[in-house]
């Protein structure tokens, strides 16, 4: 009997060793979870909690661009960043046609942060309404006591209604004559956009919120960072102490520069941000900017990619989504990006690369396969 038990235990150990079999990161390849299925968590971010990493992202249907809807927000957990267990949906669409979160809506780029004061996990996500394309430009918020959910959907909104941005010059608050009629991309239009054309247009109803991320600053203040003003300008919008609402203070960042896919991090005494340009699912040249204070001023530093010209033109075939500081590695950083496959978004690939440094500037190089020891 004892022998059989021993044999059984050994078989279990061997089996579990086999299920934990990702030993390296292979950007662009199928990344099997502990059930052997490609990780369906896109445009997402990672939260470290109690020595475990939780990866939240878009849980996509195995269908493509024509049906961009999703089931909700997926959650995976891992202790080693290589082997991820599917924890199921942290937030689900709501099967009720009176809910904004009904099936058929679009949930993109979800991020989760932990609020030390309330002990709750707070999720925000880019939310588009069923049948309305990308017109609504809302952000949704949900809350949970447990990191893996179920998150309770609270509401979706356009941030900062009735508020002017911090540092917004007095003269920008008055419309210029006929501004709604300016021809898109004409010099006058670009100047008007830089000088707040869309901030004025959206003042009453609230500012647009599309591609987004969350960032908790070292003082515990959290920011909702989103593409606003028809994707022309990023807004850094301060969240209330419980992270469930906006305070009404927000900063315009890189006005008129068309940035999406923001991923923020703090390193070597500075704030850095990776972004992309606005070409939908198609990758474009990555961008880096930095600031001494989160509120700016943010300065563009060019393309952070250090590959061939072709690779640099597409950010190694990816679009940024997050930068992850790795525990126990002196907060070394990993760049997380998505290689979108519009025909089958669930199959989109994860492009994880170590953040490397060149004269104080964070850069990204291609590694077809790399080990976490690389970032020790
Ligand atoms: C990208 C954006 C994605 C998704 C896509 C839709 O620019 O970053 O999150 O919205 O457009 O075309």
Q: Strands of the biggest beta sheet: in what spatial order?
A: 1-2-3-4
Strand runs, count: 20
- Write the H/E string, N to C: HEEEEEEEEHHEEEEEEEEHEEEE
Number of contiguous helices: 4
- Low confidence ranges: none
Task: Provide the list of bound ligands, each named once.
Answer: beta-D-galactopyranose
Mean pLDDT, all residues: 93
| Percentage of residues in helical conformation | under 10%
Main β-sheet description: 4 strands, antiparallel
Derived structural class:
mainly beta
Global shape: globular
Strand content: 35-45%
Rg on CA atoms, Å: 21 Å
Distance between the termini: 46 Å
What would you say about this model in short?
This protein is mainly beta and 376 residues long. It has helices at residues 2-19, 187-194, 197-201, 309-313; strands spanning 42-49, 52-60, 70-78, 85-92, 106-115, 120-128, 138-144, 152-157, 212-216, 222-228, 233-239, 246-253, 260-267, 270-276, 287-291, 299-302, 319-326, 332-339, 349-358, 361-364. The site of beta-D-galactopyranose has 10 residues, from strand 5 and strand 13.
Describe this entry's structure for a reader.
- The protein has helices spanning about 1-20, 185-195, 195-200, 310-315; strands at about 40-50, 50-60, 70-80, 85-90, 105-115, 120-130, 140-145, 150-155, 210-215, 220-230, 235-240, 245-255, 260-265, 270-275, 285-290, 300, 320-325, 330-340, 350-360, 360-365.
- It is mainly β.
- The strands form five sheets. It has a four-stranded antiparallel beta sheet with strand order 1-2-3-4, with no helix packed on it.
- The radius of gyration is 21 Å and the shape is globular.
- The model has no long low-confidence stretch (mean pLDDT about 95).
- The site of beta-D-galactopyranose has 10 residues, from strand 5 and strand 13.
- Beta-D-galactopyranose binds next to strand 5 and strand 13.
